[in-house]
Amino acid sequence: MVYGRVGSKKRLDTSRSDLEGMRAGQRVTWIGMAWNVFLIACKFAAGILGNSKAMVADAVHSVSDFLTDAVVLVGLRMGRRAPDANHHFGHGRIETLASLLVGGTLILVAGLLAYGALLHIRRGTAMHPNWMAFAGALLSIIVKEALYRYTARVGRRIGSSAVEANAWHHRSDALSSVAVLVGVGGALVNPAWGILDAYATLVVSLLILKVGGSICWNSIREMVDTAPSPEILDRMTQCSLNVRGVQRVHDLKVRSTGGRYQLQIHVVVDGSMSVAEGHRVAKEVERCLLDEVERVAEVTVHVDPLEQRTPG
Fold this sequence. Notes:
By secondary structure, this protein is an alpha+beta fold. It has helices at residues 14-49, 53-79, 92-123, 131-158, 161-189, 196-223, 230-241, 275-292; strands at 6-11, 248-257, 260-270, 296-306.
């Protein structure tokens, strides 16, 4: 009998896992949107009444936060849809695209803020903020850091790159508010340091640029099917080798889509093994990878027979 390859393929139960993940991601994003509306109003009021350009710039950052929340909601709803006749591997790349849009928005906001800050620095325009700007920055730090921790935890749990990217958008807003707090605080301590408000705006823009660039880079790596780290590949290999009946593994190929791994692997078994037994080994490898390695969403296992050499 010619021993062929036994293939085994499994996707996450989209009727439960993906649906629950989508709902959790939507819930945390809606909460973020509600708080962003509140902060936008507070920051604009604090910036205008508190006479702080840095605080107004921080409010603009929160507006971008609100817009990217909407992008993430669309990405989650479409990206978690089940595979269909036109999308055999699912719609996870829509989440990747949503992450890319979040990062691109951050970079655009950073450029606009930096341009305005450099103009003020060049002209020597000194602002004289008051305590309202200081209080607005402090409120933003507290709220945004809490939103970052909450959103990041949900994003990791449901394996959504878009939700995790949005968490970093919250963190970048908190960091920008720290810069505003320092700039406004310095100006309050010594009115002659009013130019610190413009420098705080410039620092804000650089922090936002760094976060946006990192998000875009990770999204681009996913779009071009970059493999995960060697540590993750080693975990996948070792998990497969631990299955009884597997003698070797080869041709492990992994890609990420929507923050979750899709992989295929070849396992070598005894050539005298029956087809049914080979199928059992494939299912055990599949189960191990899905259960033991985080973010694995889909596994394809090919079973190859160990070639028996005849003496002489």
